[in-house]
Amino acid sequence: MKEFLTLFTFLTFTTAFANTSCDKCDIDKVKIVIDHLDSLTFQIVDDFLCTFDSSCNTNLEYSEWSNETLFKVLDKAPAIFFQVIAKRQVDNKILFTEIENPVHDGFDLQEIYDKILATSVPTDLKTKFLDALITAAGKNGQKIKK
Q1: 75 contact partners, CB below 8 Å, separation of at least 6
Q2: What are phi and psi of 88, to 5 degrees?
Q3: Which one of 37, 55, 78, 124 is most buried, by most CB atoms within 10 A?
Q4: pLDDT per residue over 55-81, tens digit each?
């Protein structure tokens, strides 16, 4: 019985720690988001956002695809995005930089701005992400209407 409890405890802690690990620059997490854009969950977005890291700048495939996917997440599921931001340790500075520097110019930044504006999140956090979108729009020759 003692061995069983020891094994059970070990497996429980191992599973808990395995679920909290995050591989930076993990392109497989980006693919999962793309595959589930119409059915994003907290866990999928959480797994995706934790992959962002300044070390990913040298991984061109990850950098471009994750940047594009970030805008798709903001467009499709801004509420889930902000739920993850509010509950997890995510490096917002990296996300601000990503949003301020879109790799593709095919996004309707005004539409994304309006969707974020409509979400129920703390104003200061929302404002920082909205400001990053305004910066992105300016770089793409667009103007955001507040």
Answers
A1: 107, 108, 111, 112, 115
A2: -120, 160
A3: 78
A4: 999 999 999 999 999 999 999 999 999
Which residues are within 8 A (CB) of 23 and not within 5 positions of it... i.e. 6 or more apart? 29, 51
Is residue 81 within 8 A of residue 46, CB to CB? The reply is no
Q: Give start and end residues of each alpha helix (H) in the chain.
A: 2-20, 27-35, 42-49, 60-76, 78-87, 92-100, 109-117, 123-139
For residues 137 and 18, the model is more confident at: 137
Q: Choose among 104, 14, 127, 98: nearest CA to 90.
A: 98
Could you count the other beta carbons within 10 Å of the beta carbon of residue 107? 19
Among 11-15, 26-30, 53-57, 72-76, the minimum mean pLDDT is found in: 11-15
Compute the residue count for the chain: 146
Record the pTM.
0.84
Q: Is 121 helix (H, G, I), strand (E, B) or coil?
A: coil
Rg from Cα positions in the chain: 18
